[in-house]
From TrEMBL:
<protein>
    <submittedName>
        <fullName>Uncharacterized protein</fullName>
    </submittedName>
</protein>
<dbReference type="Pfam" id="PF00805">
    <property type="entry name" value="Pentapeptide"/>
</dbReference>
<dbReference type="InterPro" id="IPR001646">
    <property type="entry name" value="5peptide_repeat"/>
</dbReference>
Amino acid sequence: MEQQEDLFDLLASSKVVDQSIYKATIEMLRKENVSDCLKYLQDDENLQCFLQSILQAMDITNIDQEDGVKIQMKIMMDILKSLKDHDFNHKNYCEGLCEEQRDKLIKKASKNNEIGQLLKFLVLLTSIDESFIQGGSNALYLLVQMKNDLNNQSFEDIRIKNTSLIGANFVRCNFNGSEFENVDISGLQFIICKKSG
């Protein structure tokens, strides 16, 4: 039970991180063709370059706003460091917990939109860093269980394994290049709209 409280607190610490930082992080890591995000972000030179890219992408010129972005980046990196060694990143959470613990975590997380944004970021991170594949897979499982809006998402090149997506609704989502291994997709709904013309 302590692991679960710890996990919720860890996920909830994302409440101050703006979702545009997640987006800029994914774009930068893809652009730089990074395969180990923490190693890349812990390098001071890379971190400075990364910070400048985020500030440009967010159109931030004010020193106070810049300091706020630095704090948010540090929080994001601390979350990733903690998650890397957490059970969440190593065990299948749709099977690895007792149902009562899982339901409590989902209920608490459902009330927090920022946790949903962090979980989507973790799913996208699977397309870049293989050390976060199980964590990203668990994140997608939690998003489905939380009934988070997953429509119109770009999930290109994600790698998902050892989880369940039973009852998920991925209307107009892009899964080009994505890989699924040992994933229960019973009752999964994909709706694709074709353009006429």
